[in-house]
Design goal:
By secondary structure, the chain is an alpha/beta fold. It has 14 helices and 15 strands. The strands form three sheets. The chain has a nine-stranded mixed beta sheet with strand order 7-8-6-5-4-3-2-1-9, sandwiched between helices. A three-stranded antiparallel beta sheet has the order 10-11-12, with no helix packed on it. Helix 1 runs parallel beside helix 2, helix 1 crosses helix 10 and helix 6 packs parallel to helix 8. 41% of the residues are buried. The model has no long low-confidence stretch (mean pLDDT 92).
């Protein structure tokens, strides 16, 4: 069964590193977007009841008012039915826009998992990133979520930030572990064009980020958070079901600006601009696409391998695919990057951070 992704393209302010399709929402824009989303969702009524997971991301979904969130959940329930029936339903939130009323509403609506942005526990680093929330806001939001009954919280951390030291990163992990999150995700800073960091000349620091990543992994494992994917750690049974579907080349539908879909062997992504998206949907026109491609043959098999190798357990290859890529897998094994066990291959644990060197062999 496919997963459902909803992209909310609004945020309070653009962070210095952010390359996602998001912008501060002006009065009336969010309501117009929700109407457009309802129009797009209605085109997929034939898939109603067939989804297994839900992920609401952005942007900052928690920026929506309680009334807007209620409307959003009505739109979604037309496709999914009650979120409680899903294997998992995730909602992304930023601490500064998540109060007690919204936390209670999310729980009542059937959301089972919250992904909360932390990035760092040092307020000086958060200000440098342009974050609206400080560490105290994150602490308060966690308390509100626990009080509302949530027992599955993910926290995002970033490494390789400007001015960030190895001690800063390990201190952030130590600070976070006191809150006992069920899931932690690491992201190394990437400086993309047309972002404030790019304009300011901020440079990536891959070597520093690699050291932080490895130190972070070493700290999380003894705390009961095992690494099950290159950048994701969880307590047993708290792995992200929705994201595992991506890495296992499962199908999914994406709704909203820039949202990607993979259905029937075709990959596509909606236009990124929220204004263009809303105009097209409200005019009853087809949503413009950023791209559309159909995967088949060697290209589809290569993608299957690359996605599967993101998981620390690796991927079990059918005989035909194993034979098709025997040369590449043998070369990577001899280079000390891959491990083979029968028809299963995986990236060696101490080589996970250089996974791109493995993926390039399959492009």
């Amino acid at each position: 069964m496919p997963g459902l992704y909803i992209h909310i393209p609004f945020c309070r302010a653009k962070c210095g590193y952010c390359d996602f399709a998001s912008a501060p929402g002006k009065p009336g824009e969010i309501d117009a977007f929700l109407e457009a989303l309802a129009r797009e969702a209605s085109a997929y009524a034939g898939l109603a009841g067939k989804f297994s997971t839900l992920y609401i991301g952005g942007g900052t979904p928690s920026l929506l008012s309680t009334e807007q969130l209620e409307k959003l959940f009505l739109i979604i329930s037309d496709l999914t039915g009650p979120p409680q029936r899903l294997a998992e339903s995730t909602f992304e939130a930023n601490p500064e826009s998540l109060g007690a009323e919204k936390a209670a509403l999310l729980k009542k609506a059937g959301i089972s998992r919250i992904s909360l942005g932390l990035q760092a526990s040092q307020d000086s680093l958060l200000r440098r990133l342009g974050r609206a929330a400080m560490s105290g806001d994150f602490l308060k939001a966690c308390g509100l979520l626990r009080a509302a009954g949530f027992n599955n919280i993910n926290a995002d951390l970033m490494c390789g930030l400007p001015g960030q030291t190895l001690k800063d990163f390990t201190d952030s992990i130590e600070w976070l572990l006191k809150l006992k999150p069920e899931h932690v995700s690491f992201y190394a800073l990437e400086v993309h064009g047309k972002t404030p960091f790019s304009a300011a000349g901020v440079k990536e620091e891959p070597e520093a980020a690699a050291g932080m990543y490895e130190a972070g992994a070493a700290a999380l494992e003894p705390a009961g958070l095992h690494r099950y994917e290159i950048s994701n750690f969880s307590r047993p049974g708290r792995e992200s079901v929705h994201n595992l579907n991506y890495w296992e080349q499962g199908e999914y539908l994406g709704l909203g600006p820039s949202a990607a879909s993979y259905l029937g062997g075709e990959r596509r992504a909606n236009v990124a601009g929220a204004a263009v998206y809303v105009r097209a949907a409200l005019a009853g026109k087809e949503i413009p696409l950023q791209y559309r491609e159909t995967l088949s043959g060697r290209g589809k098999n290569a993608e299957k391998i690359m996605l599967g190798l993101r998981k620390t357990s690796g991927i079990e290859l059918p005989d035909d695919i194993f034979i098709e890529f025997r040369e590449e897998t043998t070369r990577l094994t001899e280079a000390g990057l891959l491990e083979k066990s029968g028809s299963r291959i995986k990236i060696k644990e101490d080589r996970l951070y250089v996974s791109n060197a493995v993926f390039r062999e399959f492009v």
